[in-house]
Amino acid sequence: MSNEWVGSAEARANIALTKYWGNKGGAETLANNDSISMTLGDECVARTTVRFSSEYVRDRVVLGFEGGEDVEVAGLKKDRVVDQINRFREMAGVDLCVRVLSHTSFPEGVGIASSAAGFSALTLATCEALGLKFDKKQLSIQTRWAGSGSACRSVFGGFVRWRAGETSETSYAEQIAPSDHWALRDIVVGVSRGEKKVSSLEGHRRAVKNPHYRQRLELMPGRNTQVESAILTRDFEMLAPVVEEDARDLHAIALTSNPPIIYWNGATLDLMRAVPEWRDEGVPCCYTMDAGPNVHIICEAEYEEEVLHRVSGLGVARFTFVNGPGEGARVVDDHLF
Ligand code: PMV
Fold it and tell me: pTM of the prediction?
């Protein structure tokens, strides 16, 4: 008789309003500063099934997006998934081979990192399969070990703060407000022709060697206090300038790293000029960028149409992609295979 353990979970991507950039090194992914994000909605979900079986003779990891082709991954991509699963195989005392199938609802290149949703869903599905029970705080700690630190924020829905902490036990995410607290929108403006980019893993490594990085770390506590308070009081005027400042600061570190990392293109700059002007003209919105050229415009739901109209007038968008706040990671009963 075959011996089988299976679990499935889903998790959503998130957009950082203050960014995690640079870490303490090592496998535990300990951030150097707190970061605050909004978990995105159902358009940005990863669904993952993890199945261990005595019938399997090797580990297999297959990724894809709904409506696209599934691809079996190898090399570093596979290693990151298997390394995370190995930690739980050891904890559970299970040495069966595993098959992983993960689907994201959004294609690559839309400017939303699939790693946060993917690693958050993977961690929960693996724990579910192996009968390892963690509360959400502990689950965020376990998720952080996957190497994509931002994934630990996707454990929670709504508005989330990752407390950097000093040790693995003190570095975890927590919810600061639920998804229905504030109807914000994240409008991704796709401006990229898909140029090769430097991974965030590499960005984190270079950041800590940058002499300007120390100043960023000094400024982060103040920014986080302001962003958390803006969220709690739903104060967009307080939120907007600090979100933009922190995004520019991350990119200033990237630009002055050695070798430099230039994530922006001309259209990124066009939007960085236009968005504050729109704000001055009475449309409350602000921009932020992750480790890529696409621009995320944040606004309240009532301004979504106006912002989309203005973006279209600028003529730089290859596509737009809109999300509101969404829910945290959860176990699901439907297995993908
Ligand atoms: O979690 P990682 O290693 O993919 O790094 C995330 C880096 C940013 O997206 C640029 C910032 C963030 O806090 O999400």
Answer: 0.97
Centroid of ligand 1 to alpha carbon of 284 (angstroms): 25
Of 151, 89, 92, 82, the closest CA to residue 119 belongs to 151
Task: Write the single-letter amino acid at 132.
Answer: L
Atom of ligand 1 nearest to the CA of 147: 3
Tokens (6 digits) for 111: 């400017």
Output the CA torsion sign for 132, 137, 138, 143: positive
Residue with CA at minimum distance from ligand 1 atom 8: 290
CB count within 10 Å of CB 218 equals 10
Cβ-in-10-Å burial (0-12, 13-18, 19+) of 156 comes to: buried
How many CA atoms does the CB half-sphere of 252 hold within 13 Å? Answer: 12
pLDDT tens track for 95-108? 999 999 999 998 77
